[in-house]
Amino acid sequence: MSTKGKRFLFIDLFRGLAIIKMIEGHVFRALLFPTSPFLKSSFVNFIDGLTGPIFLFISGVSFSIVLKRHKEDFLKLNKKFFTRIQRIIFIIFVGYWLHLPFFSLRKTLSSNGDVMREFLKADILQCIGVSLLLLQFLFLIFRKESLFNWVVLTLSILILFSTPFVLNYDFPIFPLGIESYFKQFPISEGYLSPYPIFHWSAYLLFGYLTASVFFSLNEKNKGKLFFIALAIFGITLYFMGSKTGNLFASIYGNSFNFWYGSPNIFFMRLGPIFIIFSFLYFLEKAFIPIAGPIKTLGIESLHAYWLHLVVLFGSVIRFPTLIKIFPKLSFLNTSLVFLGLTTFVYLTSYLWNKLKEKSPLLSKIVLRGSVAIFLIIFAIRKY
After folding, report:
1. S-S: 193 plus which of 20, 180, 298, 355, CB 3.0-4.6 Å?
2. Could you tell me if 116 and 176 are in contact, meaning their C-beta atoms sit under 8 angstroms apart?
3. 219-278 tens-digit pLDDT
4. Which conformational region is residue 262 in: left (phi greater than 0), alpha (psi within -120 to 50 degrees), or beta?
5. Does residue 293 share a domain with residue 278?
6. In whole angstroms, what separates CA 262 from the centre of its chain?
7. What domain count does the chain have?
């Protein structure tokens, strides 16, 4: 079965369900009473911790799809190449936009160190963008897909097993905006960089590798066999991660932190991702009756991610947000807010998707015009 021209529903479902889970996690942690047993559940906390890795993983899968379909465009410095680079840079731009402390370039640049640290820390969109740029330029250098895959696998392993050392290394020669991509600042100082490229980019790289192997085997009608093996491997990875803490602690010494950057927590998250990915492949048809909204959220994941954060937590463009409108809520009321926000995000995602389908030119004008207006006001506004 050829990959070209085919859209795999289970991949869109995976991304869409991750968006829904992300909205749920953010809403409940922002609005639910902190004494609620729901927030103290170790199972809930573990599942919440899978959302970011899933987004990274599925971004790698998407890169593999585009590479399979448009390989020649990855080898030429043509219009399509620079359009793709522009889209990736836009992802990074949105990540920094969400961190902006003030709606003024002058005031932002004159901010103290603490404010700039918060602004420049690497979040998930920055990690996705930088990792995709890395893949793009690596393929441009190595050019052959088989060689490129070996390079990505080697890089993934190096990132995974060097992370405990990198996160604990001081980078005095790097400016703050670069250092945040290599280091998770101490939580005690309030400067946690949530998604430095060590080890988070490895989820994206393994997503690419997983999809690449699947597409190759799927063309030989071995897709089902691949996902059976992937699910078994996922179970193995999880238990390997949970049982080898002492081993890795002895290897890394003082650099070892089980919950931050260890191979253990990586395996314990990547394993369930493999399992969920496999189950969605086999249960794809069962989702067909409700696939439409989930698929739309998956396709418009960047819009959905940006919008739910702005509505829930706010942005530099000040307006009432959910955390300001609502005090701490009961489980039932928080659930209602979650359903309402998810519905709103879906409806806007649906409308934006239809606008792009029916009038691509108008959608580009709306997006680029909005960005241009914001940047102009941001540049000239004093405070």
Report:
1. 180
2. yes
3. 898 989 999 999 999 999 999 999 998 998 898 888 888 888 889 999 999 999 999 999
4. beta
5. no
6. 19
7. 2
